[in-house]
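As agreed, record copied across for absentees:
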Amino acid sequence: MNRSTVTVQSSRLRLWLPLVVVLAFLLIIGVFALAEISDEAKSVREDARRTIQLTASQLTAPLRRALESGRQADVRLLVSSIVLHDDIDLAALTDEHLQIHHASQFGTAGKPLASLLPGHIYHQHDVLDNHVDVISTQRGLIGTIAIRYTPEGGTRSDARSALLWLQVDTARNMAAMWRDVAIRLGAAFAVGGVLTLALLGLLYRTITRPLERLAGVTREIAEDKLDIRLDIQGRGEIALLGQSMQRMVGQIRDTITALRESEQRLSITLDSIGDAVLVTDVHGLVTRLNPEAERLTGWSQEKAVGHPVIEVFHIVNAETREPAEHPVGRVLREGMVVGLANHTTLIARNGQEFQIADSAAPIRDPAGDTIGVIMVFQNVTDRYRMESELRQVRERLEAILHSLPDPCFVLDANGRYIDVMGGAQELLTASREHLLDRTVSEVLPPEDAKPIMAAIQSTLETGKPMRVEYRLDTVSGLRHFEGATALLQLEREQSAVLWLARDKTAQKEAEERLRHLAYYDQLTGLANRKLMVQRIDEALARAQRHKHRGAVLFFDIDYFKDINDSLGHPAGDQLLQHIGKLIRDATRKEDLAARFGGDEFVIVLEDIGDELIAASSHAEFIAEKLRQMCNAPVMLENSEQYITTSTGIVIFPNGESDADALLKQADMAMFKAKQSGRNQICFFASELQQAAENRLRLQRDLHRALEEDQFRLHVQPTVDGQGRWIGGEVLVRWEHPERGLILPAAFIPGAEANGLIDDIDRWVISHALARLGARQHQLPEIFEGLSFNITADLLLDPGFPEELQNWLLETALDPSLIELEITERVLLGDHQQATEVIEALRHLGIHFSIDDFGTGYSSLRYLQQLPIDTLKIDRSFVERLPDHAGDSRIVITIIDMARHLALHVTAEGVENAQQQQFLMENGCHQFQGYHFARPMPWEDFFEKLL
């Protein structure tokens, strides 16, 4: 057993205390002597310094006057009189070359100053007028002052300098100082010696002698003489020590009394508890048994104490009858609480056997060291017999559960698989070994695990069984189950859930077949009329509630009866299946496609726009797409057939309240399409039909315009702050053979709707690059290039970068003259793909700008990452400058943001000088607008530019 050791170092106070006091006295005297000598030496040198400064200051003026008047006798007299001062040892007057004019010593006139004073002092300091410079030497101090004078009758240019030198020898004063200090130190030493002796006597009386007496008291306490009483007199630390020793003696007496009482209470407690208690020492020898331990072991305490515990507490394995590992030895070896293994039998001294449960723990002293072991055990013979019977029942129950055709699981509160029973392997999501000790969330996808965990939690919280239907991707494929839960109590008061999973796949498949028969056409796989009517009513209600538009497309196959009559009904069925496939390919997943009956089909489109015109355009686009797909040749009975369809469209909501009314209107529109010559698309509303015809006419005309080069290039100049043309934006005009020149606003929206806008952009870029390439060597130096508007679809077209590169190569055009303008809509698409395309084109030297900035998506995060060069402020923010406060703040913010992102800024739509002035004052220096020039034909632009 380890004990903590406190090391105390001590010395004899009778010897060391006087020695320390004497050393302290000598140290104090020494410090005092050093301080006195330092102060006196400093005082001597300060007196010498003041003498030099005062003498030099008093003689400066008389010497200057004598020198100016040329009275050498007066000069000699003044210099000689200096040594009359008690402390001045030497005086000399020299010129600036250190030649002596006069000195207090005879025979030095005309000689160098080095013959009189040490030579090393002359180069240490520069001597200033009217300033006394004092230099320390080994024997004292030397002071010098410069006297600037002009001889009588001379001019300023005749001015001369003289140096006055004074020496003070401090050695005499230092000798006197040493004598004075020695006298004072002698007196202090005598007084201090007397005080030191008195202090030593006081320390012996108040410290050394009381401590010797207290040491004698501690020896008596160590000999167990606890009736000692101390007569403590006075105050102080030693008195406090004595009082503490007095209290310690009392506490020791009280502690011994309390220990005896505690021993009695412990004995009473151990004897009265129901469990058996056995205590050993650190060597495994029994030190105590309570009555219950005496009854179970057959040993009395008197006989057991001192015996090895393995003799008194003899245990074996109940099943093998082999000796069991003894808990006392394990506790002493590992130093931790241990318990007996299951099936442990205690054999008493008289041979009687008990099934026991046991725990053993180490007994530790305050230092944490093990000083023994305490075992607490109880007779569990009856409980052991009951558990054995329950185990047999559980084994029979588990055998029944394992034989069930459906899987059965035991799950804890965390959804962890405690046991997996019953069911074929193909009904499980994984092997039993893979499932055990894993949670539902670990082995199932989140969407499958969520309802199962909800049922588990509900069963644990309410205790009521639940049923939940779910489906899982098992070893044999996707299967449907019905889960039934029951609350299950495990050992140690732990709750779990018993989950029985009944396979309902066959039932679900049968139900799905019945539902498909009830709601779907068996020939085409499309919805049937019943489901279609239901979905139209639901779509109509949603459209009215959310203020969205939808459409019903009703179409049939032209001359379908002739195909049936000529090729037979199997060919007709084959055609219907072909049309059903085309419909699924042409529509979205959320759209409903149905076979109305015979060769009639219905498509329900939901949420296709808020405005009537936009919704009708979308519906027409789907109808036209499907019409063209149906017009493609199809093989029927080994022969190629061409078919056409007639389509009627009705947009909802339009005042009708149910599906039948909408279907009737759509049928009437389809009939109108057949009357118009078949293979047509007609709207039920006449105004929508007229708009559709106009869109179709525009589409045909645009195709013809591309084929016949009816488009014309225009350019709007871009100017700098000085009004110089530094570039331009390429625009397009349509020169219609009948309607004349058409502005972009009249045909660009239609081109975007029917997918021709990218072809128009290609035409503009290719023709402009060809023309610009022919002129690039004539361009002025300030010309930065032309910009082109392109759509996001064209930018992300995989073939566009290669096309653009080919156009540049064909024209040998410098790519840096090209800037492509994209709108903020590109940020709504595949931002990563857009960034890669822009980076690739910028690597060629092409520049990029964002057009109409501030009116679109405006994601600053994407804008910072997008590799662009210029921001173009939309004209809607410029037109009300500088009077509109809101637009002014927006424009200033855009310019400031562009500056921080190192981007150029161009303002569009500048129409007056006030707008230009405001923009320039806030940092924008590139402009477009009618204030400078309107868009003009290509040739006119370059004639004015060049």
